[in-house]
Write a structure and sequence with these properties.
The structure holds two protein chains of two kinds. Chain A contains no helices and eleven strands. By secondary structure, chain A is an all-beta fold.
Chain lengths: ~110, ~120
């Protein structure tokens, strides 16, 4: 079985500040890890994914995430928040099989 | 190019009514997935098709839920005798290959179902 925990259902950051969204997973097999973003009334958009190889993964819109096997973590960061980053972010894991298992999501609020 | 589309975008049903939700995947995508997203939660897997074959329906919450993809393209999720607990956003996703491993799932905008 696999599961995902996202610490903090809401995060508030100032424009220009660091964005850090935490994700921890459990999986009995080496996982594939994903971050998706969801804007209001829209579907999920892939930000980045970890498959194999380099543990630091760069995605769209300046986001990146680092896979740390020893910590079973895949935290998402962006050095400088922009107003357009206000959205909900979901971490997901895919281990054996095809289905994605999602965390509960973290809603990001960006203050001017 | 065109992404995954879903219709209707919003559906209001009275308790006990049947509803049908449609998903048009990206052209040429082999795999199609349905997820249910309750308010304030992450999406949860319902079912998976590879072409017209339904290979996994382990996430369907009850026998009131039924999905089909008869020609390996468009899919319909049907909910019979809707209950208030069925209120959620239903997301459809498609992927080029099997959807496993590194294969990316592309999501549609969802159908928001409200059962009164």
């Amino acid at each position: 079985a696999q599961s995902v925990t996202q610490l903090g259902s809401h995060v508030s950051v100032s424009e220009g500040a660091l964005v850090l969204l935490r994700c921890n997973y459990s999986s009995s097999v080496p996982p594939y890890l994903f971050w998706y973003v969801q804007y209001p009334n829209q579907g999920l958009q892939l930000l980045l994914k970890y498959t194999t190889g380099a543990t630091l993964v760069k995605g769209i819109n300046g986001f990146e995430a680092e896979f740390k096997k020893s910590e079973t973590s895949f935290h998402l960061t962006k050095p400088s928040a922009h107003m357009s980053d206000a959205a909900e972010y979901f971490c997901a894991v895919k281990a054996a099989g095809n289905k994605l298992t999602f965390g509960g999501g973290t809603r990001v609020l960006v203050k001017p | 190019g065109a992404g995954v589309s879903q219709s209707p975008r919003y559906k209001v049903a009275k308790r006990g009514q049947d509803v049908a939700l449609r998903c048009d995947p990206i052209s040429g995508h082999v795999s199609l997935f349905w997820y249910q997203q309750a308010l304030g939660q992450g999406p949860e897997f319902l079912t998976y098709f590879q072409n017209e074959a339904q290979l996994d329906k382990s996430g369907l919450p009850s026998d009131r839920f039924f999905a089909e993809r008869p020609e390996g393209s468009v899919s319909t999720l049907k909910i019979q005798r809707t209950q208030q607990e069925d209120s959620a956003v239903y997301l459809c996703a498609s992927s080029l290959a099997s959807g496993g491993g590194t294969d990316t799932q592309y999501f549609g905008p969802g159908t928001r179902l409200t059962v009164l």
